[in-house]
Write a structure and sequence with these properties.
By secondary structure, this protein is α/β, with parallel strands linked by helices. Helix content is 32%, strand content 22%. Bound molecules: iron/sulfur cluster (SF4).
Length: 259
């Protein structure tokens, strides 16, 4: 079984397709995965691998680990574009997410004031006021919306709770009043006898309607880049992503394509 990608709390820096030179923060266990989604394409593998034994890192260990790493990078004259919360699952499930975000912003201001702070989130924890508050503090609040059609959303993202529906996510995202970047994975494929495709005209139309409500400052369209836990998924090529992006741009959105 494919298992977690990141084996430390602070990882990298890595060169990200989307974000530049990125130092990662994994607020999830180093030996397991915790997420409120279980996406077919998750690079960290399926949730079935379990949460592991290490547990989630404490606020203090994140702070100390990041400080140490930033000091080393600064001493070595290394460049840093962004500090990114991602990792083995959904970072906003961390019980001290708001406090950790505040710590990270303070450390960024001290060592790399030009760097951005980004969070990649699946947008499901916005009912918790401290999560929404934290996401309003960061430079790049990158929220996931892969489909605005419930059947596709459930087949592709597989939320832990059946009560999580696109309409609810869209309503939650409106609170950012445009201060968010929506990230949408485009793919098609088969899983457990079912065909999934969020590249159809109906899917793209529904996404555009959702974006009109959310009013994101930018949309990032991307496609599979690494091994996925579901085997029969197809990478959508650069040309097709561009065609979809063109439709979205025609509706007035700024769209970045990462094929
Ligand atoms: S939301 Fe992200 S971490 Fe969670 S299952 Fe989907 S891709 Fe993986």
């Amino acid at each position: 079984m494919q298992t977690v990608l990141f084996h430390s709390t602070i990882f990298g820096p890595i060169k990200s397709r989307r974000l530049g030179v990125s130092l990662g923060i994994n607020l999830l266990p180093n030996d397991g995965k915790i997420c409120s989604f279980d996406c077919l394409y998750c690079e960290a593998g399926f949730n079935a691998q379990g949460p592991g034994k290490d547990g989630i890192p404490s606020r203090d260990s994140v702070k100390k680990g990041l400080k140490r790493k930033l000091e080393q990078m600064q001493a070595a004259g290394e460049k840093l574009d962004v500090i990114t919360f991602s990792g083995n699952g959904e970072p906003t499930v961390h019980p001290h997410f708001l406090e950790v975000v505040r710590d990270v912003i303070r450390l960024r201001d001290t060592y790399y004031p030009e760097a951005k702070v980004s969070v990649l989130t699946n947008s499901t924890m916005l009912g918790r006021p401290h999560v929404a508050e934290a996401l309003k503090l960061v430079d790049n609040n990158i929220v996931k919306l892969d489909s605005a059609i419930a059947a596709t959303f459930h087949a592709l993202n597989r939320p832990a709770s059946p009560n999580v529906i696109p309409e609810g996510v869209i309503a939650d995202l409106k609170q950012f009043e445009g201060q968010c970047i929506v990230q949408t994975m485009m793919l098609r494929g088969d899983y457990e006898g079912r065909h999934i495709d969020n590249t159809t005209d109906a899917e793209v139309d529904a996404l555009i309607e959702a974006y009109k409500e959310i009013k994101p400052r930018e949309i990032m369209l991307y496609s599979i880049d690494r091994k996925t836990p579901a085997q029969d998924l197809e990478k959508v090529g650069a040309e097709e992503l561009e065609t979809i992006a063109t439709r979205m741009r025609a509706a007035g959105f700024k769209v970045q394509v990462n094929a």
